[in-house]
Each structure stands twice: as structure tokens, then as C-alpha cells.
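In the previous chapter we treated chains in isolation. Here, by contrast, the input contains two separate entities that must be folded as one system, with a combined length of 598 residues.
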Amino acid sequence: MNATAVNKVLEVRDLCVSYGKVEALHNANVSVGEGQIVTVIGPNGAGKTTMLSAIMGVLGSRGRVDFDGSVEGVPEVERMVARGMNLVPEKRELFGEMSVEDNLVLGAFQRYRMGRRDHGQTMEEVYDIFPRLKERRTQLAGTLSGGERQMLAVGRALMAKPKLLMLDEPSLGLAPLIVREIFRIIAELRRRGVSILLVEQNARAALQVADYAYVLETGEIAMEGPAHKLADDPRVIEAYLGLGGKHQDKLAH
Amino acid sequence: MDLQIALILGQDGITNGAIYALLALALVLVFAVTRVIFIPQGEFVAYGALTLAMMDAGRLPGTIWLLLIAGCAVAVLDGYAALKAGQQRRLAAILGLNLAYPLALLGLLKALPLPDLPLAVQVFAALLVVVPLGPMMYRLVYQPIAEASVLVLLIVSVAAHVAMVGLGLVFFGAEGYRTPPFSEARFELGPMLISGQTLWVVLASLLLIVALALFFDRTLYGKALRATAINRTGARLMGISPALAGKLTFFLAALIGVLSGVLISPITTIYYDTGFLIGLKGFVGAIIGGLASYPIAAGGALLVGLLEAFSSFWASAYKEVIVFTLIIPVLLWRSLKSHHLEEEE
């Protein structure tokens, strides 16, 4: 398991999700320590997105989600957001017909509702991480490029000042140089103390940035371990990293 | 027809059109946020007007009982959920809002000599009674089926409309009422004679539209409603729950409905079932705007008002037919012009 010295932000026990009779996720056990980046890698259709959706409460599930010291039987989205969990979904789900700035402000909705009205300051911090968003603040979110949209999605989630940020395929559909930029930002977020659960198909880059990793195959955790050890595991190399991917290595740095 | 008559008809058309525009905006808003085609919108107009009429006549409006019963139902449903989740503070808020508030209001209505109070106070009291029925209705009727298809939501809307008309008959009787005008003043403007009430209707409508525009453009809650309309999933992930957005939307729709009712009841006699026709004309406006565009919906509703006024002069027997026939060329034009987007849902 993770180094026991760190406090667990998230501990998921025996999480199961079924779509009708088909079980998409079976008894998954995953935990994220404070300030850690934990990644879940695996092939298409392994249940990675399903797992994040269930933890967040977008999908119904069975099992136990222990987040930030208290247990949720079946998580409920609004409550999880209020408690400091945030999901950046694969499809980004931006508000396309609203400006970049409005998208960001809405990220702070739950905090604002609970009486913490410091979104002006948080926005400056987000602009600090993503100067590009500041340049485009008045532009409609729907007119942004793919990389900018991903930045906006992450920035919007950061507006909630999450304790745990869950990123679903942040590199999906982005040009290699932008992917590198995104991973640089993920590393930067950890330096700022955000715990991150990262789901990725780009296993190489994910293992490089993460502290701990899980391999999810056909709905079950097949392997787990510290990320650098998993990166050297012959089974992982064969299935997910491939040989001679030198240029991939470079891009991931 | 001479200029004099044209001016009178034009004034009538604009006055009614302003009310239709408000209702059209409410219909577009409700559909955008919750996908509900809100047929009972008109009932809020009638309930508002008739509640005011009852108070003016010194009788206790039946709508207060509806508020009590609906409040009890919401308190039981939400209170049970909060109790199960162990949220004590939420429980207190739920009981206060849904039980204590209607009871306090009932006591107040019984204690106050309502007919002797100024009209403004009566209007405010009518708002206090009828507007909370909006969010309660969302909680009881639509929230349990929020994920249903537009057609199912529409069928439920029809049912809610029929139920509200029936209750309206119980509460207010079959008689029609007119409430006293806000202002008896008359202004002469060239050949035109403008009544104070007309000015009230037009100015209040404009003010309300501006206030709504500011709400959606400037406040975080307004932006949250827009966000829900644009991307439901995205909004949920920001912690904007569909239930909250729905209740807020129905609050606004009920507020618009009741205000329209108290504005129009000095001009038109309102019966328990008058609301439906008024709402339907707002709906024609909303359809012209494709249930999506606020400015086109408002403009369309104004057009409906003018068309109705002029057709009542030329062919008064056919005035409703002419107004509702307008919807056919509009639908034809829209279906030819726009691409099918239904699959995207």
C-alpha cells in the first residue's frame, strides 16, 4: 500500500459499479495520500472513467468511499463538491456559450454558497497557473482550442479549492507539446499541495509524474505499486509502455 | 378604422403583449433549465390575480390552504431525507420554510384587516402566498421525474395544469373578478388617451425584464442557472444541483406569473380558468423564439398582443383562432430553417 506515513485523503473500499447486469467495476480498492499524485492506468474500457464517476457520485455504486475522514455509502455529487472533491471529466463539460471568466467563477459556486466568497483571489491564483486563460478571459469557452479548453476545465475545478482533484484523461485528444504542458501543470499542482487522482491512457507520462499507480484491467485492479517500480515492471512495459518509445519519453519529460 | 381606433388598439396590444412577453420569458427560462414545458404558468397568473381579489374582498384566499398542504408534503419528503442523512441544520431550514412560514402567513392574513390596507400591501401579501407554490410544485411534481423525457414532463405539466384549474374553481368559485387599478390617472398624449394602469403594466414589465437580465448576467446564482441550461453535467460537477436550479427557476416563473396576474387583473376580468389562455399566448411567443431565444420570444409575444388587439376589431369572433394560427407558419419556417438537433441530447 501507500507509504503509511501520509494521511489518506481518499480511501475506496470494494467499490462495485454495474450497468444493468454487466459489472463494469469489481471490488476496486484505491487510496490517495495527502499531497500525492496517484494514477490509474489501463486500456480502453477497463472501467477507469466508471471508477471516477462512482467516487464522485455521478454513477450509483456499492462499496465504501472514505473521503477526508468521513465515509459516504453512496456519494452524492453536490455533497462531494461541497466537501472538497472535484472531477475534471473526460469531456471537459465546459459552459461553451459563457465567457472563460464566467466558467471560472462558476467553479467557485459551491464555496460561494457556503459563504466563502473569496473567488476573486482564487481566480488570480488560477490565472497565475494558466496565464493563457487570463489573456482569453472575455472569450467564449466554446471558441477555445483543445489545450485551452483542458486548462479551463482544470482551472474551473481549482476554483473550488479542492482537497482532491480527479482528472479523467487530461491528455486525451491533445497535441504532444500540449500534453507535456498539461503534465507539467499536474506536477506544479502537487507542489501547491493538491492531491490528485489521475486516470490516463498515456501510461508513460502518468507513471513519470505519479507517486503511486494502479493498473485497471476489465473492471479489476490487476497491479499496483509505487509508480517508478511499476514503470520498470516487465508486464507493464510490455502492455502499456512498449519498447523503443524514445520520443514518447522525451515528450513526457 | 381611423387613427384614433388604431392608437387605442395599439395601446391594448402593447399592454397585453407586455404581459405575454413576461410569460414567454418565464416559459423559455423554465424549459432551458429544466426541459419542462410549463403549461401551469398561466395558472399562476390566475392564482395571483384571484388571491389579490379575495384579499381585496376581505375573504381568506384558498391558496393559503394549498400553500399549507404543499408545504407539509415538502416538509415530510425533504425532512425525512435530511433526518436520514443526519443533517440537523438542513432539517431546521426545511421545517422553517415549509411549515412555519405557511402557518405564520396564515396567522398574519387572519390577523390583518386586509381590505383596509393599501393595494401595494395586498399585492405583496398575494406574492407571499402564491409565489412559494412555484418551488414547492417543482419539488413535489417535477423533481422526482427530473430525468424523464421532454414528452413525459409535458404530460405531467398538462396534468398539473388540469389539477390547478380544478383547485382554482374550488378556491375562487366560478365568478370572475377585477381588482382595483394601481392608478386612476389618465394622460392625454396628442390624440391618445393613456390610462395609468397601462403605463404601470408596460413599465413594470420592462423593469422586470431588465431585472431578470441583470440577474442572469451579474449574479452567481443567475450564472448558475444559465450554466445548468447550457450543460447539466458540467453544472452538477460544480455543485449546482438540478434540484436547486429547478426550484430557483420555478420560483422565478411563479414570481413572473403572479406579477403578471396582479398587473393585468385591473384591465381584464379574471376567472379561475382564464390563466390558461393568457399563458398559451405567452407560449406562442416562446415558440416564435424557439423556446430558446429570450429577445425573440419577448418580441413574438408583443406581436401576439398586437395581432390579438387588431383581430378583435376586424374579426372579433376569430381573434383566438387568428392568434393561434400564427404558430403554424412559425413552426413551418423554423422546421425548414433549423437543423435537427434532437439526437445530440
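Residues 46 and 218 of chain A are 4 Å apart (CA to CA). Residues 95-161 of chain A form one domain. Compare these points with the single-chain example from earlier in the chapter.
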